[in-house]
TrEMBL record:
This is MFS general substrate transporter. One of its GO terms (cellular component) is plasma membrane. GO terms for molecular function: transmembrane transporter activity. Residues 1-366 form the Major facilitator superfamily (MFS) profile domain. It is a multi-pass membrane protein. It comes from Hyaloscypha hepaticicola.
Amino acid sequence: MALGVSAYLCSCFAAIYGKRLVFLFTTVLMIATCCWGAAANTYNSFLGARIMQGLGMGGFFALAGTASINDLFFVHQRGFRVGLWNFAVIVSVNITPIISGYIIVDLSWRWCFWILVITLGVLLDSVAALEKTHLGDGALPEIGTGSISQHASLWRRVLGLENLEIKDQSRIFRLCISPLLLLRHPAAVWGSLMWAVTFTWVIIQGAVATQIFGYSPLIGAALGTLFGGWSSDEVAKVLALRNNGVYEPEFRLLVIIPAFVTIVIRGFGLGGAISSELSPVICGVFLAFINFAVDKAGEAFGLAMLIKNAFAFGLTFMLNDYYADNGPRVFFFTWGALTVGVMLLTIPIYLFGKQIRAWADKNNIL
């Protein structure tokens, strides 16, 4: 839940303070809170550390995989890059429990956090050394003015903030409220629902499926994220050529078709396989389909993160009980039907996408 709030707010803060400063602050916050988690001696202290860690993760979720990629790459190149970023996120979610299990057994659970401190220290150095592009929306002056950098202090030069100029901080309240107005846009509602429901399968897998089988479907996750991003770019380019070179955002929606097929296979197939007590290998194949079909949608990414995380946070209180009370068939069939229903909303978005965009432009919604 803290991650969802942080991702939402970091998108707003980056518009005033610049993406670079947000990256630096959230990375330092992650290092401090991982030290806190490793040293915690009570549950309440540990809980506080975990909440603050969620706040620290928001910068990378809100900016690294979406806004920064959009700033650096052309529209026909973004799908593959976002796919690579999703690959890193999804694969790490699946492989980390395996690695951390050995660390906990051989060293202790505290060392999971100390190792994170070390790796986050490397990340902080990378942010300071490599994130040199000027990416703020109005937070940075034009490159080459030199009006600020000539008199910048040492710490600003070391952190690469010598050209940072913060303007009109009074905008922060309006910027934090304005994303909520995106819910007037059908595409924003569709994207938020799609991501919340499809990514729920990762939560289900972690809360239920991994408990049953004891392993993570890493291969399906890797293939799904790489194929989804690459195919999104390729489909968009082919259709743009057939459209006299004009790109339409709706072209990318066709990637939903293979995702829809795999969702049907995974949801109903996994529930039937577990309830019929089929072999773990067969069930593992369906688990791979789960991760293959998960795809992150998202222009209004901060808003989608907030909705998705709030939805997932609520689910954590009932997933295991629902599975225990109703069994695997009802459990997976229910979530499969819910996901299919939401994905079918893609059809009107695709058919009426141009009209929706014209209406949104006319009413200044985006």
